[in-house]
Amino acid sequence: MTTTTVRIPDVVVIPLEPWRELQHREAIIELNEPPPLLVVEVVSESTKHTDYRAKRSEYSVLDIPEYWMVDPLEAKVTRLTLVEGWYDPTEYKRSDRVHSDLFPNLGLTAQQVLNGNVI
């Protein structure tokens, strides 16, 4: 028996054209498609193990260049950047500015992200 795992991230940032294609099917990241630019997972008590372990390895296989874990349980945002097939983590707390290679002008603090004040 084969088990297939499907991940549907909490937030996905993708270019416009792939987004248009997703309007006509389920929003699942396929191996044969260009990877999302950014995936964001919001950690909860029930998803903590999966968010911190399983998803990290699965997203690296998909070549997702940047992956964030927003963890209100630990009051931190972890940015993971893909380097040679592995994610390098950087943690941000409170008034730390969250850096993003994809969005260099973002300017949000960890607390703003944790509070949902992202506009």
From TrEMBL:
Identification of the protein by name: Putative restriction endonuclease domain-containing protein
Superkingdom of source: Bacteria
InterPro entries in the cross-refs: Nuclease_put_TT1808, Restrct_endonuc-II-like, Uma2
PANTHER family membership: SLL0198 PROTEIN-RELATED (PTHR34107), SLL0888 PROTEIN (PTHR34107:SF2)
Putative restriction endonuclease domain location: 5-110
